[in-house]
Amino acid sequence: MEIEYSKASIILRNKSLSDVDKFVLDFVDILKNHFRYVIVSGYVAILFGRSRGTEDIDILIEKITKSEFFNFVSEIEEKYDFLNPEDREGLYEMLSENLGIRISKKNEIIPNIEFKIIKNEVEKYVLDNRLKVGLDKNLLYISPIEIQLAYKLFLGSEKDIMDAVYLYELFQNNIQRDEIEYWAKYFKIQDKLDNFW
Amino acid sequence: MKSNTGPNILRFKINWIISGEEMKESEKKKFDENREQILKELQEEKERNFKQKIEFVRLYAEWIKKTPNKEWSKQHSKFINSMYKKD
């Protein structure tokens, strides 16, 4: 894997894009014109080659007003479905209550985007410190790897631990170990991190 | 010494499910008597499998790291696409 890694960005050239990559890139290409966003969780590992599927791609966005949300809905509704039965008022209400809404390509269910508004300081940190990923002509934003890795250990399922192992193996020469330790302490999972090293 | 009671009993249970026969009281007793041993062996197997999966993830990450983007991503996209293939 040839990558150019810096504190704020990763460049990955010549990647043969999967259908899921294309789905995500098409979506964020519209999203970026409306809101600041960050992709978190499983897709981060999949983007860099982890060999597993996922039903959903988790995206966090900044706090938005109802009219901003309605403008966004107007732009995407021709190409995308909202999988929740609510109308746009109801969808905005869900977002305001910190619930995720699901968006898929028209007449498809999987994969879908799970779309949420940031709800606490940690998610705000992830959004403010998002990492830019350049894929040739395409661009997307992901969570910083350090917090992602600690959060995966916090979640703790077999799949999450394997994602954490994969990200660590891949980026161990680029990431800040003390940052992972900070987040592990924050999430109260130092014991899991000790086993992990 | 490692007991092989567990797997034998499991094999018996599979045969019993296939044949559809009623399980006799004596057979039920055999299951109950060895329950703790079977659960211990299954737990050990689960942990062994998990360690093997982690080892594979490490091995796979090593392969990704030393393989050019064009090459690993071609295989990876083929694999990912196959999971979302529509009929």
Strand content of chain A: 15-25%
Identify the overall geometry of chain B: elongated
Outline the low-pLDDT stretches of chain B: none
Largest interface: A-B, 27 and 25 residues
- Decide which structural class fits the backbone of chain B: mainly alpha
Number of strands of chain A: 9
User: Count of helical segments of chain A?
Assistant: 9
List the secondary-structure elements of chain B in sequence, H or E.
Answer: HHHH
Q: Residue share in helices of chain B?
A: over 70%
Describe the main β-sheet of chain B briefly.
none
Q: How large a portion of the residues of chain B is in β-strands, by DSSP E?
A: under 5%
Q: What oligomerization state is this entry in?
A: heterodimer
Overall strand count of chain B: 0
**Overall residue-averaged pLDDT value of chain A:** 96
Written overview of the protein:
Chain A is α+β, with helices and mostly antiparallel strands and 197 residues long. Helices cover 45% and strands 21% of the residues of chain A. In chain A, strand 1 (3-5) and strand 2 (9-12) form a beta hairpin. The longest helix of chain A is centred in the C-terminal third of the chain and has 14 residues, at 158-171. Chain B is built from 4 helices and no strands. The model of chain B has no long low-confidence stretch (mean pLDDT 83). The A-B interface holds A 1-2, 12-21, 46, 48-51, 53, 110-111, 158, 161-162, 165-166, 169-170 and B 50, 53-54, 57-58, 60-62, 64-70, 72-74, 76-77, 79-81, 83-84.
